[in-house]
Amino acid sequence: MRDLTSALAPLPDINLGFPTATMPMSITRQQKAAIIVRLLLSEGAKLSLTDLPEEMQQDLTLQMGAMRSVTRETVAQVVEEFMTEMDSIGLSFIGGLEGALNTLDGSINPQMIERMRRESGVKHTGDPWVRVMGLEADRLLPVLEEESVEVAAVMLSKLNVSKAAELLGMLPGERARRITYAVSQTSAVTPDAVHRIGQSLATQLDSVPPKAFDDGPIERVGAILNFSLAKTRDDMLEGLEQQDEAFAKEVRKAIFTFANIPSRIDPRDVPKITRGLDQSVLVTALAAASATGSEEPANFILDNISKRMAEGIREEITELGKVKEADGEEAMSAVVAEIRALEAAGEVFFVAAEDDE
Questions:
Q1: Are 215 and 239 in contact (CB under 8 A)?
Q2: 141: which of 116, 151, 230, 267 lies 20 to 30 Å off by Cα?
Q3: pLDDT surpassing 90 at residue 232
Q4: pLDDT tens-digit profile of 166-204?
Q5: Mind giving me the DSSP string for 151-195?
Q6: What are phi and psi of 15, to 5 degrees?
Q7: Within a domain: residue 34?
């Protein structure tokens, strides 16, 4: 119905007093629009005119209420004129600056879009709850934490059940109980109040500047140190602890290294991990680990694969002899990378470290 909306959009001022039995052809565009809409509805068409400004929707309704009957000849001429105009439309630019910003969303700089909204005072059109419900739980959590329990209850009622349950689980027990009780008091809330709350929340959430990074600083530092050489990683963590002990502690939790395998990997997942690795890489990693005092992760892997495979790898380790430090680091990093890839794909899950509990 986008073309219909664009055809109805350029309507001049409206004349509401036209209750005659028949209508001359010197009728206004509003009256013609009312005829088209009435005709389509009478034919069972499902129209969606919600993209029109509310004022225009109201004017259209009043116009239809002011009209009575129209001759077949008038209807035929209005339809013919309407179809001719529809056929002549190649492109429609509707919605002004807001329409342009919505159309270009995802194609131009998001920071510029938000800046233009703020500077011009342009707000999002349409149902604000569609935008609110499409946001991640982390973005919505501050609303439940900071807004009144009544507003939080309305938002919780509008969200789908799974996201509402996820958000409740992220709240302190007392706050979650108060909001849950407030939900039981929302039966008297009017649709207009719900819409205004949605508009307020959408504006509030839209005003949050877009993030330059998808992950937080802890995750980014952890990811960098994950693939750093052991000496570099240890030096960086030592320096972080001197600068910010709390931050360093969180970074340590985010890091997963070869040494963390016994404490963070379920023994049943070890065969799945080794299947994705070239055996020469696995042999090199285990040989290097054993030579540098990291026998525990090496033995953990060997103890949780088939005995025949473990015996073969032990023989290869003996034959391989001493491994260069750089080759050993590279091989152990390849094992960690394989585990990380499987974890990201949901194939394996990290066991919670004792410090996390």
A1: no
A2: 116
A3: no
A4: 888 888 889 989 999 999 888 888 988 888 898 888 877
A5: HHHHHHHHS-HHHHHHHHHHS-HHHHHHHHHHHTTGGG--HHHHH
A6: -115, 115
A7: yes
